[in-house]
Amino acid sequence: MRTAIEFYNISFNRLKLTSRLLGAGLWENYSGISWGRVASLTQIVMFLALHAWTGYEYRDNALEMLETQSLICTGAALMIKYFTMIRNTKPVRELTGNIETDMYVKYQEMSSEYSVVLKYGRVLYFAGHIMIGGYFGSLFIIWINPLFVYFTEGRVMLLFFCEIPYVDWTVTRGYWTTVTVQIFFYVTGTCALILVDYLCAFFTINGSLYVDILRFHLDELSELLASPGYQTKSSPAIIEQVSRKWRTCLVEHQRIVEYYNKFSDLWSMINLAQVGCSVFGICINMLIIFLTDWYAAYAILFALFIDLSVHFVLGAIIERKVDDLHISLMHFPWYLLDDRRQKEYMLLLLRAQQPSGMSIAGLTPVNYETYTQIMKMLYQVFALAMNFLK
């Protein structure tokens, strides 16, 4: 059976492998030019440029132009995410390094906190399986769509509607050239989605671990405060334990505040790009589904919807954990502390009442309420587009 540190290392190695494949360099020290990063950026720029060019070529047919733009919003979101990640390698390394040191290395099998750490190590491990399987599942559906059309209708079609200038994909050589380029686009895009979205899940799950460890220590401290040795001040050992445990709780709370603040700053623009691009991407593919019989739009729509929803689920998890921490602090027997520590508790409670968690560029929190508002806005945009096309 794997230990908590082994679960963590497997999950972290997935992220490092994806970063290495993309040349992002989040955990690697590059000297000089990173050719992997240049290749990834070149593919992203080519992806957007070819989609724009194909849309221009089919500008006279509204339905065909819609099909050419089915993935352009995803490419735009990936470009913003990728640039944000490579610009912030230092905070990413700092956050991941602190998690390993503060949690998985510190609390080993013999510690009382190990059960909490092991639970979140398993959650992190299985979340990686689910997310990677989901993204590659959508990718597989898109890949088999040309085969389905060929065997049912006898037509040859591309993986997605994106052409290369001066390459005729209706002939054999041009077709395989175009499909090869599209496969590279797909693999790079899927790896980028896994890197950014699984990294977001990675930080969210470990942030919840920070909170539950603090709640675990608050429960231990409550038991010490209620013990007769502390009540009668007859046990110096228990008094010293209370003092040490209280200092630990203060440090851990400060660490949670700093962690969520750094995480929120790092992901605020990513969330804005995700919401903006996903809304228009979902709207485009819904129009394609209603107006055409292009089956690949279903897989693209599913992937876009899941990609958008995952961020709000993770934001809601953070919000719930912060609320749980606030409830634990409210139920904490503060009245058993001495006067100096009661003042420290008041400061602790005051800071806990300030919201922490992910936001969309600092404008609104990432939670279920915001998600509902975005779904309403998406419906309005879709209705306007339908009326315009009619």
Overview of this protein structure:
There is one protein chain. α9 runs parallel beside α12. With 390 residues, the protein is mostly helical. The protein is elongated. The protein starts with a helix and ends with a helix. GO terms for molecular function: odorant binding; olfactory receptor activity. Keywords: Cell membrane, Membrane, Olfaction, Receptor, Sensory transduction, Transducer, Transmembrane, Transmembrane helix.
Provide the descriptors you would attach to this structure in a database record.
about 400 residues; cell membrane; about 80% helix; transmembrane helix; olfaction; elongated; sensory transduction
Q: What topology does this entry show?
A:
Elements: H1 4-22, H2 35-57, H3 62-68, H4 72-87, H5 89-105, H6 114-153, H7 172-226, H8 228-231, H9 236-291, H10 296-331, H11 339-352, H12 368-389
